[in-house]
Amino acid sequence: MASLVLGSSQQTNKGGLSLFTLSDHEILNQIYTTHVHDDEKFDVESLFIIVENILKRATVVVDNIVLGTQATVEHLEEKIPKASFSPPICTLKNISCEMQCKAPGEEIAHKTALSILSKLSNYSWDAKAVLTLAAFALDYGEFWLLAQIQSSDQLAKSVGTLKRVPILLKRPTLQKHKQALVELNNVIKATLEVIECIFELEKLSNHDIKDVPALSTGMEHIPVDVYWAIVTVVASTTQLCCLINDEEKKPELSPFSQKLNIIVTKLKRQITIIRQQIEETEAYWKLVKVFRTPTEIMEVFKGLIYTKDSVQPLIDGSTKKPVNIDVLKKKNVLLFISSLDITEEDISILRPIHETIKKEDQYKIVWIPIVELWTEELQKKFEILRSKMPWYVVQYYSPIAGIRFIKEKWHFKGKPTVVVLNHQGKVECENAIHMIRVWGIKAYPFTSTVEETLSTSREWIGSIGTGVHPSVENWIKDQKYIFFYGGKDNEWIQQFTRRATALTNDPVIKEARISIELLCVGKGTKGEDHVGILGRFWTGIESLFISKTQRKTETDAVSLEIQKLLSYKNESGWAVLSKGSTVVLSGHGTTILKVLEDLDKWKELVREKGFEVIFREYHNKVLHTAHICCRIDIPNTSGKIPENMKCPDCPRIMQTYISFKCCHVDGTANGLH
């Protein structure tokens, strides 16, 4: 057996090592050498029931005798072990014998605990703890039972004399050792509580660790917790022997009591987390089943939000008053799901939707805030956000029942999402936020079918452009050519503006009656204004991209054009040329500027081939002489991330990289590139 040199607590200051300075790792190294395997089977639960019955009553008796309290044991629950249970009496006596008449000291207690663990090497960890406590309960329970009845029973009096009961019960002796007896009683209660928690953890361990990851943390600490329970029982036995023998030198139990209280707090916290994860798992599989064959929106909504029978009213944003969830009955529902880190723009894009759909009263919007742990500060933040919303709001200050389902099945990662459910509770669109951002009410009724139709249209730039600048709508109506452009480099933007202006004013272009408008989207800097023109433009492009990629469809020309444009987001310059709302082409700053610089080489062909055709042809010619890598950044909070992606400039599959970004403001997250 491995050995460890320890010093007593009195020796610690003289350079000895205290038991309480050992790390969990050092203790594990010691106790794992004593554990073989769990093949010794017996009814641990019944033994623990008996031990609880003994110690909970014995500690009440001690409090009454030592502290003079008048507590009774009638209120204590009498648990019943199985009728067939046969206590392992020889094992218990063997353990008891191992603990008896030891000298005080941490090193001795440690060696005794290791010896007991070796004797119980074939038992499970919880069984080791229960057996050791049961061996102690035999002596402790017997001693205080005799103390109770010796005055009225001659046999008890005689046995008590052998057990030295009268010596400890003498008033002077009792007073002298009062504090030590109280300490002993308290440490016994703490030990019992630790083992109760370990037992509870073992009961919970029959759940799948994949569904309940907190089990892993809880279970891996059980061997160390069992060790502390056993070494404390050993020290308690020594304390009892010292008291019975009226000895002056006794173990110091307060450090053991403090250690056990820390363990109890940790175990209870872990058990709470595990139970919460079990509830989440049960709710998850219940929702999976419900969504396979949904029949009514109300039942789906209840299962998604509320745990068990804790159904609470919604808040009507228009009146700020609570309403029964019956308002959703037989309605189509847009679930606006988000964290509390949402912007005014996130809310504002839904306002026109709400104003339109409330007229027919067939669709309802409900905000579901996702908060893992509510605090007073977060509740205040919730109230501020809630006051800005005219639709229904879930006011539920605990984690919602369907949080795992929302994360796993609807790919929620913190950013706002809108899940569309029909009146039966069937999902019509897993995330309509992107089509709402791009097309607004035109996307009504916000189903995947509508999204498919809209996202295949070549007129996608029109929806984004009109949201960026009010003049774009008229340019589109007049079927004008429009250059949308921007980039990271101000010098490039100035060069492009100068060259594009020269193009629009060129006599050949004017003669061909080609009307071209310029719209500078802006320059991206470290302090990007995401609520300005630049932010709205790229938010629209990213929404289009995600809208396309979150469905399993073949890559089409529109998808490639959007991907190509998105790849230019962090470049020094880029431009998109459209005719009305139809995209002609998008280009990297280097290639598109080269086309404008070479205007004299191709402008004469405008009369023959047309502006649109010749511009595209010359750009393709320039493109073949350039070698520009294509890079697309996709925020990791966007929902589904495509497994692979075809390059928009060539037929190859793009490589995947992981990168992390921080802008030193709240709400940023890592990205996948």
Report on the structure:
- The chain is an alpha+beta fold and 673 residues long.
- Helices cover 52% and strands 10% of the residues.
- It is built from 29 helices and 14 strands.
- It has a seven-stranded mixed sheet, with no helix packed on it.
- β10 (574-579) and β11 form a beta hairpin.
- α18 crosses α24, α20 (460-468) runs antiparallel to α21 and α20 (460-468) packs antiparallel against α24.
- It is elongated and about 125 Å long.
- The two termini are 54 Å apart.
- Residues 1-16, 524-531 and 667-673 have low confidence and may be disordered.
Q: What's this model, at a glance?
A:
By secondary structure, this protein is α+β, with helices and mostly antiparallel strands.
Number of strands: 14
Helix segment count? Answer: 29
Query: Spans of 5+ residues with little confidence (pLDDT < 50)?
Result: 1-16, 524-531, 667-673
- If you average the pLDDT, what whole number results? 82
Residues in helices, as a percent range: 40-55%
Strand content: 5-15%
Largest sheet: 7 strands, mixed
Biggest sheet: strand arrangement: 2-1-5-4-3-6-7
Oligomer category: single chain
Pfam family, one: SEO_C
Domain Sieve element occlusion C-terminal: 466-664
Domain Sieve element occlusion N-terminal: 23-294
Protein name: Protein SIEVE ELEMENT OCCLUSION B-like
Give the secondary structure arrangement, pairings included.
Blueprint: H1 24-31, H2 44-67, H3 89-99, H4 106-119, H5 125-149, H6 154-162, H7 165-169, H8 171-176, H9 178-204, H10 214-220, H11 222-244, H12 254-292, H13 297-305, E1 314-316, E2 321-323, E3 332-338, H14 344-348, H15 351-357, E4 363-369, H16 376-386, E5 392-394, H17 403-409, E6 417-421, E7 427-429, H18 433-439, H19 448-455, H20 460-468, H21 471-477, E8 481-487, H22 490-505, H23 507-511, E9 516-523, H24 533-549, H25 557-567, E10 574-579, E11 582-588, H26 589-597, H27 599-602, H28 606-609, H29 611-625, E12 634-635, E13 658-659, E14 671-672
Parallel strand pairs: 3-4, 4-5, 8-9
Antiparallel strand pairs: 1-2, 1-5, 3-6, 6-7, 8-10, 10-11, 12-14, 13-14
Helix pairs in contact: 2-5, 2-9, 3-5, 4-11, 5-6, 5-9, 5-11, 9-11, 9-12, 10-12, 11-12, 18-24, 20-21, 20-24, 22-26, 24-25, 26-29
